[in-house]
Amino acid sequence: MTIVRRAATADAEVLARLLWDFNTEFETEVDDVDVLTGRFTRLLGLDEVVAVLAEDDRAAVGFALVVLRPAIWFDGPVAQLDELYVVPHLRDRGIGTQVLDLCRGLAAEQGAPEMHINVDEVDADTRRFYERHGFVNVEDGTDYRMLCYVGPTSAS
To answer: Which residue range or ranges hold the N-acetyltransferase domain (predicted)?
Structure first.
């Protein structure tokens, strides 16, 4: 049985290991677990950061990280889902849905009316997962896709 709960600062190392696994699975550059543990420890102490942990038989099997930021378009914050991961051999068993549902519920409790997620265009499985849960990349009343751009904080 999988238990999905809000993570605490004491879970920082477990979350760091899951994030490391996530990035290495997809051959993405990632810092060492000890560096990630320090970052999770710092972030989990902030009110605007929410982490969710999925555990099965006392082993961590998935997690998510949500950051809440102020918004000008409504009174509550915007929830940004930065990470959501389920270990490969347990995918397609509803764990990701449980994790996402708890993230959405916790964000709603903080007054966030919407959640943003960035997904690589080539990641068809992940896009289908979020679309199945009501996420879109074309807003009502428009006929064009939303895009996310990444750039340096200093001008070149």
So the answer is: 2-151
